UniProtKB/TrEMBL annotation:
This is Spore germination protein. The chain crosses the membrane at residues 289-311, 331-349, 361-381, 387-409, 416-437. It comes from Paenibacillus lignilyticus. Residues 478-499 are annotated as: Disordered. Keywords: Membrane, Transmembrane, Transmembrane helix. InterPro entries: Spore_Ger, UPF0353/GerABKA_families.
Length: 499
């Protein structure tokens, strides 16, 4: 739709003609006339019937306006305008393109003859999904509310948990055609304003026709476009969003998306689910150690097995080596091809289980893995140890809380396997060095991706300590009275002072 940046005229009929031209061929655009057109006292209501609650508009608002017109004498436009202000918040519009934006935002607009202003009132009538338990970030303890596709509901869930007067919000309209509303939430006394200003600049620079998901924003504002690692953490849990803001983070919420983005994010934060804050410290630390172990198993498990069984047989104990050799006897493919076949088959089963209905998907993933694995072993295509290695690698990848991070590890697994198949442990070492070097070079708005300090220091980045975090607020140390304490320092910029 072509936007017309022209001011409104004093004639309601001429404004209506311009709107009809813009909505040519759109049967959702409707209008209703009020008042007496013959006497020149005319008011017109325009709306999109699929967005506005048409029953309430007809039965309550239009009927009330007509009743006021019959019971009161005087100019119809003044009577209608007085009746409109009793409905709630009224937005004053002075241009045609503003009318188009308000109509798309579930408003009805009142055009009054003789007024160069129009009046918009929000009256949504479309259905939205009810608040339900998160589908991806499941937990045993803690709240069970998850975001929906309605931005207002999502903001309500956040505001209900964060009642601080320091909570700030900044809105953007992104998408030339979609005009999608995007909100930035942060705590003014804890955010690093250099990160905030850079992020706002990047948000203003987004040029896109239709914004349908927060992933599009992530792709536009990230520093390294071709990096396999996610540079922003996404979450569908309001409790995790509130915790992130309390640590000085900035939250990006998009209308129509049940996921919010947390910026800036570090690699270690993507390894810890929100459930850790609801567990006692020794349980949380035990689970964090398990995740670190499964992280390396998921990344280098098949590569390590390929290196041992192909180039470094002397590193394997003799009884175990004899077991591997007996299982390998009769297999026509080298170990690398075995691993490649099983990894591709596992990824196909994983993808199929996600695309099928939930009940069928579980059956396909379990039965398919058992049948294909056993059939491959019986037919002599792969060995039993390889099936075990690939199965353990796949299970280990499920322990990574961040789905985007788990996908990155699955993607990096294949080039590491290829390098290992060429030169053994040397190739694996080179591949891991390249991965770590790339991760160390990643930044987002000046924040290192592998920042080991995190928002509250090492105590809450790698391990969780016994005492609750009462001495720190966000990323800044609380100053002690009577001591010579320098300016507060941001962990994002390696302790450099900022004004």
């Amino acid at each position: 739709m072509e936007m017309s940046h022209v001011p409104l005229l004093a004639s309601a009929s001429l404004n209506l003609q311009e709107l009809k031209r813009l909505y040519t061929g759109n049967e959702l655009f409707l209008f209703r006339n009020l008042g007496d057109k013959d006497t020149g006292d005319e008011a017109i209501i325009v709306y999109l019937n699929s967005l506005v609650d048409e029953n309430r508009l007809n039965q309550q608002i239009i009927r009330k306006m007509n009743m006021d017109l019959r019971m009161n004498s005087g100019p119809a436009r003044e009577i209608v305008l007085d009746s409109l202000h009793t409905l709630g918040n009224v937005n004053i519009i002075t241009e045609i393109d503003e009318i188009v934006s308000h109509l798309a935002d579930a408003n009805f607009v009142l055009l009054i003859e003789g007024h160069i202003e129009a009046y918009a009132v929000k009256l949504p009538g479309f259905e939205t999904r009810a608040i339900d338990e998160p589908q991806i970030e499941l937990n045993i303890r803690g709240p069970r509310e998850g975001f929906t596709e309605d931005l207002q509901k999502n903001l309500g869930m956040v505001l209900r948990r964060m009642k601080s007067q320091d909570l700030k919000a900044k809105s953007f309209l992104i998408g030339q055609e979609s005009q999608t509303k995007v909100m930035l939430l942060y705590l003014g006394d804890r955010v690093d304003f250099r990160v905030l200003n850079e992020l706002c600049h990047r948000m203003d620079s987004i040029r896109i026709d239709v914004l349908s998901d927060s992933t599009q924003i992530e792709e536009w504002i990230q520093d390294s476009t071709f990096s396999p690692f996610p540079q922003l953490l996404n979450s569908e849990r309001p409790d995790r969003i509130v915790t992130a803001m309390n640590r000085g983070k900035i939250v990006i919420m998009v209308d129509g998306t049940p996921n919010a983005l947390i910026a800036p994010s570090t690699f270690f934060e993507m390894l810890h689910p929100s459930e850790d804050q609801f567990e006692r410290f020794y349980f949380a630390n035990f689970l964090r150690i398990i995740r670190l172990i499964t992280l390396f198993v998921s990344l280098i498990g098949p590569s390590f097995y390929i290196a041992l069984t192909t180039f470094h047989l002397e590193m394997i104990p003799t009884p175990l080596l004899m077991t591997f050799l007996s299982a390998k006897a009769g297999i026509p493919f080298p170990t690398f091809i075995e691993a490649l076949i099983m990894e591709v088959a596992f990824e196909v089963l994983r993808e199929a289980s996600m695309r099928l209905p939930r009940i069928m998907g579980q059956s396909v993933s379990i039965v398919g893995a058992l049948i294909i694995g056993e059939a491959a072993v019986q037919s002599g295509i792969v060995s039993r140890p390889m099936v075990i290695v690939v199965a353990m690698t796949g299970i280990a990848s499920f322990t990574i809380p961040s789905y985007s991070t788990a996908i990155s590890l699955r993607l990096l697994r294949f080039p590491l396997m290829f390098l290992t198949a060429l030169t053994g442990m040397f190739g694996l070492s080179v591949g891991m060095f390249m991965v770590i070097f790339h991760a160390c070079s990643l930044r987002f708005c000046g924040v290192l991706f592998l920042d080991p300090i995190g928002s509250e220091g090492i105590r809450n980045t790698i391990m969780k300590i016994f005492l609750p975090p009462v001495r720190y607020r966000g990323g800044f140390k609380r100053e002690r009275s009577g001591s010579n304490v320098p300016k507060r320092q941001s962990h994002y910029f390696q302790g450099k002072e900022w004004d």
